[in-house]
TrEMBL record:
It comes from Noviherbaspirillum album. Pfam families: FabA. Involved in unsaturated fatty acids biosynthesis. Catalyzes the dehydration of short chain beta-hydroxyacyl-ACPs and long chain saturated and unsaturated beta-hydroxyacyl-ACPs. PANTHER family: 3-HYDROXYACYL-[ACYL-CARRIER-PROTEIN] DEHYDRATASE. This is 3-hydroxyacyl-[acyl-carrier-protein] dehydratase FabZ. It is an enzyme of class 4 (lyase). The keyword Cell wall biogenesis/degradation does not apply.
Length: 162
C-alpha cells in the first residue's frame, strides 16, 4: 500500500475559528499546509467581487498593497495560534508591531490566487517575527518581515512589551 504525505490543512470554517476577521476583511481562504513552530502556506482567491475593486481602480483593478500585507499578517496569526495550540477568545487581539522591508513586485488582479508563505523567524517577549511572501503563479507579488504581538483587548491600549 502506498503511503500518502499527510498535510495539515484548514478550510474556511476552521480558519474562522482562529481569526476574528469576517467579510470583507477575512483574507485567507484556505490553509494548504502548516508545521507548528515553523511555517504555513495559505491562499487567498482574488475575485472581481471584492469591495475594494470598486475604487482601486475602476479602470484597472488591483489589490491594494496594504491588503496583501494584511493577508500575510492573518496567515502569520493563524500560524501563531496553531503553534500555541489554542484558539483566540473574544478578548484576544493581534497587533502589528512592525513591518520591515516590504516590497511589492507585481500587481495582484481579479482572477489571481495569492499563495502566502509565512515562516517564524523568532519569538521573544511576546513579539513574533515572521518572514512573509506572497506569490501569484510562482512570481513574487509582495514580501516583508512582519512583527506582531497578541494582547487581551482590555490591555490593548498599552504599548507592546510593557
Amino acid at each position: 500500500m502506498e503511503t500518502q504525505e499527510v498535510k495539515n490543512t484548514l478550510d474556511i470554517n476552521q480558519i474562522k475559528q482562529y481569526l476574528p476577521h469576517r467579510y470583507p476583511l477575512l483574507l485567507v481562504d484556505r490553509v494548504l499546509d502548516w508545521e507548528s513552530g515553523k511555517s504555513i502556506t495559505a491562499i487567498k482567491n482574488v475575485t472581481v467581487n471584492e469591495e475594494f475593486f470598486n475604487g482601486h481602480f475602476p479602470h484597472k483593478p488591483v489589490m491594494p498593497g496594504v491588503l496583501m500585507i494584511e493577508a500575510l499578517a492573518q496567515t502569520a496569526a493563524l500560524l501563531s495560534f496553531l503553534t500555541m495550540g489554542q484558539k483566540p477568545d473574544d478578548n484576544s487581539v493581534v497587533y502589528f508591531v512592525g513591518i520591515d522591508g516590504a516590497r511589492f513586485k507585481r500587481p495582484v488582479e481579479p482572477g489571481d490566487q495569492l499563495r502566502m508563505q509565512v515562516e517564524i523567524l523568532r519569538t521573544a517577549r511576546g513579539i513574533w517575527k515572521y518572514k512573509a511572501q506572497a506569490t501569484v503563479d510562482g512570481q513574487v507579488a509582495v514580501e516583508a518581515e512582519l512583527m506582531c504581538t497578541m494582547r487581551s483587548a482590555t490591555d490593548a491600549s498599552q504599548p507592546a512589551g510593557q
